[in-house]
Amino acid sequence: MRTAAAGAAAMLAFALWSSAAAAAAAPAGAAAPAADVIVSGAKIWTGDPGRPEAQAIAVLDGRVVALGADRDVMAWRGAATRVVDAGGRRIVPGFNDAHVHILGGGEELAAVQLKDVTSADEFARRIGERAAHTPKGEWVTGGTWDETKWQPVTLPTRQMIDRTAPDVPVAVGRYDGHMVVANSLALKLAGVTAATPDPAGGVIVRDASGEPTGALKDAAMDLVMRAIPPLTHAQRRAIIERALRHAASIGVTSMQAVSDGDLASDYADLGVLAELREQGQLTARVYAIPNLAGVDDWTKLGLRHAFGDAYLRVGAFKSFADGSVGSRTAYFFKPFDDDPGNRGLLASEMQPLSRARERMQRADAAGLQLCTHAIGDAGIAAILDLYAGIAAQDGPRDRRWRIEHAQHMAAGDFERFAALGVIASVQPYHAIDDGRWVEGRIGHDRSSRTYAFRTFLDHGVRLALGTDWPVAPLDPMLTLYAATTRATLDGKNPNGWFPEQKLTIAEALTAYTQGSAYAEFQEAEKGSLRPGMLADFVLLDRDVLTIPPAQLRDVKVMKTWVGGRLVYDSAH
Ligand SMILES: [Zn+2]
Q1: What's the gap in Å between 513 CA and the centre of ligand 1?
Q2: For position 134, what pLDDT does the model report?
Q3: More confident position, 477 or 471
Q4: With bands split at pLDDT 50, 70 and 90, how would you rate the model's confidence at 24?
Q5: How far is ligand 1, taken at its centre, from the CA of residue 343, in Å?
Q6: How many A from CA of 373 to the centre of ligand 1?
Q7: Pick from 183, 179, 173: which is nearest to 107 by CA?
Q8: How far, in Å, is the centroid of ligand 1 from the Cα of 103?
Q9: CB neighbour burial string for 498-536, b if at least 16 within 10 angstroms, e if fewer
């Protein structure tokens, strides 16, 4: 716990720094404050063009007070200063994942693991094993299966699960979050039968006789998910703590916590996060992005921009334009190449678009930020239309509207993106994952503007990097690997899938730190290491700036500091 005196010391130190010619100048006078932490003997990539590299960093009261050569920074050493020798290794600013589902991610860490399953039998066996250890009254959920990895490829059904888990309700999701498959008991508890109509924006997959197969797409998922008993506060807290421990262990110091879908769950998460923050146990900074459906709750509070502090803020709202390519629900101008009658779906909450616009306008009028999921070219275009209309009506302002995913761009929309100052909040890991099969669904021409990170930068569009965890792994090294190599997971594109869209490691690091900070209006607080900035940084076992990009995925985090506090140490 910080005292008022320590805060005053930090202010004094900061004033001294501000007036000094050199940032690393020693504090003058006998009462000069000493640093809490000094990390020396490092290779620090600061992200600050004024001082791109440094050897040492000093932290006082949660912020960087000095940065520079070892001998200069050591002048901040006092009797109580904790000094860490980095052993010549690389330090970078903490990673800021711009799109995370904290609860969903934490649940996945604890859930039945189906992601690497390669057959229907294995799928059923693992669910059966988990069901056998599931307390009565609880469901088997989670999963993140991907039937495209199965031999043979086939959509899972309730019958597959009924064989191994007939007595426990099961609802396991596809890895992209746009489909679940339930067993017969779960369908029964949810009241889903052959007579249940498809909800708007969703599909109940049915067999030849009209019976539900157990697979439920997009809005239809909710038919079953709402039958699952809600988490208790203690369960939710344990899940979120697990997610935070994982984040610390891989150098994620900020997470932009995108709605898990349901507003009540978003608010319950916020309650847990606020409790952790209050107790000093929030080990990553969180920018909460609840569902736009709750916007009126927040406008009633009179919020302008974000509300909160450096650890926990709210100020942006999430909505959906469409679905995903994997579930063939992303909204395109032209049909899928392998499904000629289908060009995807505009999300139910966008129908009609005028209603979505009304809600967005209320958020914008209150100075709140918009983050909209849009994947297909027509879905993205529809959101750019809405954004442009609102901006034209309400006048210019620093809005930093975002499009989440921005996967498949129409050729003419890069310029519109840039002109509106819209941020592309992208997840490079999807490029090496979906890159295995997406060309078969949308063809070569559309694929050439898919995960088009380089084209965004060339047009002056700002990138924020993230993972959409648990859709993709939270590990920043995998994202850096994906952005710089574009080498698909099947090994078929070792030199990169659409290699002209690769980023350099410096560009990827910048987007993952400053870019993500900009996307939450925090670039003056974090994302680069300069005196005055929050002391969030990560010590790596290898130098990501100099190793071949193909080796990035093997880099490990040795230590993670958040606000100068060591929140992860691989040695312990
Ligand atoms: Zn997401």
Answers
A1: 19
A2: 86
A3: 477
A4: very low
A5: 21
A6: 8
A7: 173
A8: 12
A9: beebbbebebbbbbbbbbbbbbbbbbebbbbbbbebbbb
Task: Provide the pLDDT for residue 303.
Answer: 76
- Residue 23: band (very low, low, confident or very high) from pLDDT cuts 50, 70, 90: very low
* Residue range 197-225: mean pLDDT, rounded: 96
CB-based burial of residue 180 (10 Å sphere; 0-12 exposed, 13-18 middle, 19+ buried)?
Answer: buried
Distance 360 CA to ligand 1 centre (A): 19
CB 413 within 8 A of CB 381: yes
Distance 535 CA to ligand 1 centre (A): 28
User: How far is residue 546's CA from residue 105's CA, in Å, rounded to a whole number?
Assistant: 31
Instruction: Give the whole-angstrom CA distance, residue 17 versus residue 28.
Output: 10
User: What's the rounded Cα separation, in Å, for the pair 408 and 40?
Assistant: 44
C-alpha 466 to ligand 1 mean position (Å):
10
C-alpha of residue 536 to centroid of ligand 1, in Å = 24
Predicted structure pTM score:
0.85
Ligand 1 midpoint to CA 121 (Å): 29
pLDDT grade for 31, boundaries at 50, 70 and 90: low
Q: How many angstroms does the Cα of residue 470 sit away from the middle of ligand 1?
A: 8
427 C-alpha to center of ligand 1: Å? 10
Q: Answer yes or no: is pLDDT of 100 > 60.
A: yes
